[in-house]
């Protein structure tokens, strides 16, 4: 199939990867062709099986091969051409969010942060990031001028390809717009779809930063209640009968803060309602990589006709790597590009090249699998600890990042949140996530940051004080 040179300075893994890539791109190996098994390849080329495993894993990560259980490795069809191929861009066309942002960034050095929205550093793919940084440095990236306005072509091509394989969303690279994190992508979607006075539906409870962006735009927010099983569909239909929303910004799966997920029938029904009442759906799917089952999304069912799809690499690689992406119908993609350029010209090509290096690392998918297993274990442990202290759980998803819980003796979580900060612990007050802020006992727990014994000792002390002195009966200290 190819000739390897053990005496070459190029590592054998790289020789295999580049050799097979050339055979695939020249169609010497055609789409659907089966490759030799790992053992057969190793034997015929006199290399170790570990070397072949690493090479095949890298090619799977790059989208050039696909692995089928109990069948082997097959050539995959590249989406829109080989990764890295550039194509022409479209035509240029009190508790509130401020408080939350200050708390998050002013208190980021707190040792225990169950109220935050990211993963601990040792849960991230740090080894892959370091390798990616070395690749970027070795590539002698030009630092003068700007990058592609749409974002790095290679990363957009690979993003489209991975979404087609994993999420069944068929999109061309020209429909993928990279952004400075998912927050910028949300901001672009709001500015493209919403004008002052428009009614917009949002999850309730939901994402506070999104609500802030919408309010700044002058939108009228209407909350759609989340249930442990997704949406309250009768309530949603009643809202649609009273309002004429232009859009519904939602997280169907692993939603923040509840980690609930909508069922497939609900997704179909939601798309039917959107067509009937003529509104857009903006699907914020930033936790998709934490879903082991690859549940269908609104975008996969609609294929970007009425749905705008948002994703992020920051949640599973590093929150410091601000790289998100959005997919839309070609006409809307052109409008989003124009808004992006007005706001900040281009996104960071350096960060995008780094992310590309990370997700084409052969260990990337193994990291995601390990992360999902680790989160599932944390869910079980944290759910037990909350229940043992008397907390009521909204649901027990067993996956994703969050648990939404309340204690019957705490009518206002704001008070216990403030006291916990004094002990070096950041909690997530439920009031922050509500469309109409009001005192509530609900709190969001990030399970990855809720494994420290000091958290449970602190909660036990605060609850004991409440039971002994009634400090939290009304959300105020009783004298």
Could you please describe the fold and organization of this structure?
- It is a single chain.
- This protein is 42% helix and 13% strand.
- The chain has 479 residues and is an alpha/beta fold.
- The N and C termini lie far apart (82 Å).
Name its key features.
42% helix, 16 helices, disordered C terminus, 8-stranded mixed β-sheet, alpha/beta, 14 strands, single chain, 479 residues, 4-stranded antiparallel β-sheet, 13% strand
Alpha-beta content class: alpha/beta
Helical element count? 16
Query: Roughly what is the average pLDDT, rounded to an integer?
Result: 85
Low-confidence stretches: 79-93, 473-479
The biggest sheet, with number of strands, parallel, antiparallel or mixed sense and barrel status, is:
8 strands, mixed
The number of strands is 14
Strand order of the largest sheet: 3-10-9-8-7-4-5-6
**Proportion of residues in β-strands:** 5-15%
Portion of residues in helices?
40-55%
Question: What separation lies between the terminal Cα atoms?
Answer: 82 Å
Radius of gyration from the alpha-carbon trace, in angstroms: 24 Å
Principal-axis shape equals globular
> What series of H and E elements makes up the topology?
HHHEEHHHEHEHEEHEHEHEEHHHEEHEEH
Summarize the structure.
This protein is an alpha/beta fold.
Layout of helices and strands, plus pairs?
Elements: H1 12-25, H2 38-45, H3 49-61, E1 65-68, E2 72-75, H4 97-106, H5 126-138, H6 153-167, E3 176-179, H7 181-193, E4 199-204, H8 208-217, E5 220-227, E6 230-231, H9 233-242, E7 247-250, H10 264-277, E8 280-284, H11 298-302, E9 307-312, E10 324-327, H12 330-344, H13 349-359, H14 364-388, E11 392-393, E12 402-406, H15 413-422, E13 428-429, E14 443-446, H16 453-469
Parallel strand pairs: 4-5, 4-7, 7-8, 8-9
Antiparallel strand pairs: 1-2, 3-10, 5-6, 9-10, 11-12, 12-14, 13-14
